[in-house]
Design brief:
Helices cover about 35% and strands about 25% of the residues. Helix 2 packs parallel to helix 7, helix 3 packs across helix 4 and helix 7 packs antiparallel against helix 8. Strand 10 and strand 11 form a beta hairpin. It has 17 helices and 22 strands. The strands form four sheets. Strands 1, 2, 3, 4, 5, 18, 19, 20, 21 and 22 form a ten-stranded mixed sheet that branches. Strands 6, 9, 10, 11, 14 and 15 form a six-stranded antiparallel sheet that branches. It has a four-stranded antiparallel sheet with strand order 13-12-17-16, with no helix packed on it. The protein folds into three domains: about 140 residues, DNAb Helicase, Chain A, CATH 1.10.860; about 200 residues, Rossmann fold (3-Layer(aba) Sandwich), CATH 3.40.50.300; about 160 residues, Hedgehog/Intein (Hint) domain (Endonuclease - Pi-scei, Chain A, domain 1, Beta Complex). The protein is α+β, with helices and mostly antiparallel strands.
Length: about 625
């Protein structure tokens, strides 16, 4: 049987062969035909794509299929499987399998053969990645930083040994789910994610989950930084998991002082000026031993972007081998992309980028968000999801479809909303039906550039570039929609009746969702624009088009910090009371948690409370 040898680069020759080692591939396959243990060792390290020779990929695939069925993987069985696949003759017949057996020095070295195959595969992937980077660089792109990020992402993917194939068989997912369930049931705290140190919050969230993006919103001076630092300290000091904090507002010295005051329970003002008692010095000394070994890292660059965060987080995870948590303080201070048309578009782009980072690194990302002081002008100052919005807005003449079947302009709604509740038609994505929803607020957003959206045989609508539209591939801002994408609109058709949110009969029960092809957008000027805050599903129908403009769309969890700071003469005010509102929880219940806030330590702590009944999240 012909062999190619190591396939190393030829030293002085101008021609270089692609790295491969056929001897290692043949020996590994032969060992797999001889031993079930060898199959297990091979499957742990390599996949079909790691083999250089196409026939070797086919043989590996056949063995893998048989193994998944718990079948014997000898020559007879593999030959039969290859015959069923219609590829036995293509690989050289049963005789070729016999030759593979003969080429195996020892089946006990299967792990070593697998390492060799894997390493040559990595070299080929590096060459392919370098070629892509070279092509991107030769094209002289407009945004060089974007190319740098793409290049780093390609290399990081290879170093992390991530396959580009994202397909997962249900049986494999079920096995992993069963393993997770068994681990949770044997755990005393029944937390599947990373503990926050706040018991009731962990009870609702089951801890901070990998790949989750968590937004923590609060009005100014509510303590959102203290809240995040408390969680970060607990994760790093108590669980010894690496934590990376990006602080765009406070220096690393200021954050360190806050962490020290909180953990040592020392008055933060006295710590800052050095006026400490002997007892406080003792507590600080004791806390130093705990915090000194905590793998917590702070980046206090004031002008950080999503690309910067991704770069630094990747490097830290590569150096440490793991990363437990990323904290960003806070969203509105981050730098946006070069091509973003407005600050609203930038913040939405940043939000999406952080979610992609959480998925890529498989780590929870906690992003703090400053809420507008406009919340304080309301009688009910408890934040809602609508307060997160960097609003996309609509032209004042846009017609909004009400739950009773009538239409009115969004400008007219702005005038009607203060006089009583208004019900509009909203789409329940989970149930796949239209239902009524209350308009919490209709308001004038200001004056902005607006654009007209044209669809093929569909309605037109005028909005800002950051308004979200439902497409077949999910919610997208207008600037993200490309020619050929299809946008969701509503039409009337014969479908079963559906009750509204109050259990009553919905007039437009025949309303159905369909799609029209996006053609183009073009600017129409600079004018007054309006927005709606709609409860429950946070979407509504404008000019027959389904629209949604909430920043929380990318988040898996949205929490708000609410503290009634009251006035100076409010003798009944509990200044140590804090409420954490879980307004969105993609994979679990929503509700609220009562905590104690200790201003002198800038610390949130557990607080006893009556048993809470959590409600299911409609999102």
């Amino acid at each position: 049987m012909a062999r190619s040898g190591d396939g190393d680069f030829v030293g002085a020759s101008s021609e270089r062969s692609i790295p491969h080692n056929l001897e290692a591939e043949e020996s590994l396959l032969g060992a797999m035909l001889l031993s079930k243990d060898a199959i297990g060792e091979a499957l742990e390290r390599v996949s079909k794509e790691d083999f250089y020779k196409p026939s070797h990929q086919v043989v590996f695939e056949a063995i893998q299929k048989l193994n998944s069925k718990l079948a014997v993987c000898d020559i007879v069985s593999v030959s039969d499987e290859l015959r069923r696949m219609g590829k036995l003759e293509a690989v050289g017949g049963t005789q070729y399998l016999i030759e593979l057996l003969a080429s195996t020095p020892t089946m006990g070295s299967a792990a070593r053969y697998a390492i060799i195959v894997e390493e040559y595969s990595l070299l080929r992937k590096l060459i392919a990645a370098a070629t892509k980077v070279a092509e991107m660089s030769y094209s002289v792109p407009e945004d060089v930083n974007e190319v740098l990020d793409k290049a780093e992402s390609l290399i990081f993917e290879i170093s992390s040994k991530k396959s580009s194939n994202t397909l997962v068989a249900l049986r494999d997912a079920l096995n992993r789910t069963l393993d997770d369930l068994e681990a949770r049931s044997s755990s005393s705290d029944h937390i599947s994610g990373i503990s926050t140190g706040l018991d009731e919050l962990d009870e609702i969230l089951s801890g901070l989950q990998k790949s989750a993006m968590i937004i923590v919103g609060a009005r100014p001076a509510m303590g959102k930084t203290a809240f995040a630092l408390g969680i970060a300290s607990h994760v790093s000091a108590r669980q010894q998991l690496p934590v990376l904090i990006f602080s765009l507002e406070m220096s690393h010295i200021e954050l360190t002082q806050r962490i020290l005051a909180s953990e040592a329970r020392v008055d933060s003002k006295r710590l800052k000026n050095g006026d400490l008692s002997n007892e406080e010095w003792q507590r600080i000394s004791k806390t130093f031993s705990t915090l000194g070994s905590a793998p917590l890292y702070i980046d206090d660059s004031p002008n950080v972007s999503v690309l910067d965060i991704r770069t630094r987080a990747r490097k830290l995870k590569a150096n440490l081998g793991e990363l437990g948590l990323i904290v960003v303080d806070y969203l509105q201070l981050m730098s946006g992309g070069m091509r973003a048309e407005s600050r609203q578009v930038q913040v939405s782009e940043i939000s999406r980028g952080l979610k992609l980072l959480a998925r890529e690194l498989e780590v929870p990302v906690v992003a703090l968000s400053q809420l507008s002081r406009g919340v304080e002008s309301r009688q009910d100052k408890r934040p809602t999801l609508a307060d997160l919005r960097e609003s996309g807005c609509l032209d004042g003449s846009t017609k909004i479809l009400l739950a009773n079947g009538q239409e009115t302009t969004i400008a007219a709604l702005e005038r009607l909303a203060p006089y009583g509740p208004v019900e509009v038609l909203s789409f329940d994505e989970e149930a796949g039906v239209f239902t009524s929803a209350t308009v919490d607020r209709a308001y004038l957003s200001g004056y902005r550039p607006i654009f007209q959206v044209e669809m093929d045989e569909g309605p037109t609508i005028i909005s800002t570039l950051n308004h979200r539209y439902l497409t077949r591939s999910g919610w997208k801002m207008l600037w993200q929609i490309n020619e050929g994408d299809e946008i969701a609109i509503t039409t009337q058709g014969e479908v079963p009746n559906h009750p509204d949110s109050n259990g009553g009969s919905l007039l437009l029960k025949e309303r159905i969702l369909t799609y029209r092809r996006f053609v183009e957008i073009h600017p129409v000027g600079f004018d007054a624009v309006y927005d709606l805050e709609v409860c429950r599903h946070h979407n509504f129908i404008a000019n027959g088009v389904l629209v949604h403009n909430s920043l929380e769309q990318d988040a898996d969890v949205v929490m708000f910090i609410s503290r009634d700071t009251g006035g100076a003469d409010d003798e009944f005010q509990d200044k140590n009371s804090a409420e954490i509102i879980i307004a969105k929880h993609r994979s679990g219940p929503i509700g609220s948690v009562n905590l104690t806030y200790i201003p002198s330590f800038t610390k949130f702590a557990n607080r006893k409370r009556p048993k809470n009944q959590y409600q299911s999240d409609d999102n």
